[in-house]
Amino acid sequence: MTTIFLERGTQLLQEILNVLNQNQGALSVLLSFLLVIAYIAQYRSMEKQREILEEQTKLSHQPVIAIDKWYIKDDALFFELSNIGSGTAKDIELAILIAPLPENTDTHLDRTINSEEIIWNEVNQIQEQEYMAEYGTEVSHQVIGRGALRAGETGVTVFAPYSIVIECWDPESNDHVFYSGFDNFKETNLDEEEDHYVNTGNDLFKFQVSFKYSNSLSDVIEEKLIWSQKFNIHEVDSLMDIVKAENVRDEDPRETIQPQNLRQPSSFYNNNSGGR
Fold first, then answer.
1. How far apart, in whole angstroms, are the C-alpha atoms of residue 16 and residue 34?
2. Percentages of the chain per state (helix, strand, coil), in multiples of 5
């Protein structure tokens, strides 16, 4: 039986070879077609391997920023950060949003990050140097880097200054209004005759702090709201005043991080060491 199958197989193979010998053109086309299919399969396999490798690289070099604490001092926003991930964090940016609230508003603040309302500010990485002066302890800020944090760096202080320009979102005009410092912001919004008056009449504004950073490939890793509260413009004279415990109204603690100003209000305001 085996001999019969072998003979028939040999005959079939011979017939196929005879057909191919008689149709050399068809054989060439067939081989070219099979070669193209092989190339396509190889390309797809290599592309898949490349995607897997890129994803593994991203995961193995992913920054994770922990916010150790944040505070406002002298109308500047300070964050102390640690990168507990395995990759460099780039494009670290902070944002403060101030906007008037509608009259008779009793609802919680909108906690979504509206890209139109926010102006992101690149941060400066600083080193705080404390020294004793004739009239007590003073602090100097030495800028040592901008907007990046390597893996393993801990307790790094970054800041974004707001003493020169205060930005406020005006829902009425759907645009930003800029003031030359906090004094100008307050004076303007206590006088209805002023050109840049955005106060809705109840003297209440929302104050929100946001934070974001990217990885080394410039992919945004995290963008989130850090703090959300209301304040009365009559009760504050600076950004620092806004987060004093007695001036905070209807803060929204869900997934937010309290400023150092709230955790240690007395020692913080009486100490010039930047909240340390």
1. 18
2. 30, 35, 35
Cα separation of 145 and 123, whole Å?
A: 9
What digits encode the pLDDT tens for the residues 105-117?
655 566 666 788 8
Within 10 angstroms of residue 261's Cβ, the number of other Cβ atoms is 22
Residues 38-65: pLDDT tens digits?
Answer: 777 787 878 887 777 776 666 667 889 9
Give dist(CA 251, CA 52) in Å, integer.
44
Alpha-carbon distance of 143 to 145, in angstroms, equals 6
> CA-CA distance, 194 to 209, in Å (whole number)?
27
**In Å, how far from its chain's centre is CA 273?**
28
Angstrom distance (rounded) from CA 88 to CA 58: 11
Q: Is the pTM of this model over 0.85?
A: no
Burial of 71 (0-12, 13-18, 19+ CB in 10 A): buried
d(C-alpha 118, C-alpha 230), whole Å:
17
Helix axes 2-22, 24-60, angle to 10 degrees: 100
Q: What is the per-residue pLDDT across 59-87, written as a single tens digit (0 to 9) for each?
A: 667 889 999 989 888 778 889 899 998 88
For residues 203 and 185, the answer to whether their CB atoms sit within 8 Å is no
- 3-state SS, residue 100: strand
Give 18-83 as a DSSP string: HHHHH-HHHHHHHHHHHHHHHHHHHHHHHHHHHHHHHHHHHHHT---EEEEEEEEETTEEEEEEEE
| Residue in 246, 251, 222 with CA at minimum distance from that of residue 236 | 246
Instruction: State the chain's maximal CA–CA distance in angstroms.
Output: 112
**CA distance linking residue 181 with residue 188, whole number of Å:** 11
Query: What's the rounded Cα separation, in Å, for the pair 94 and 79?
Result: 9
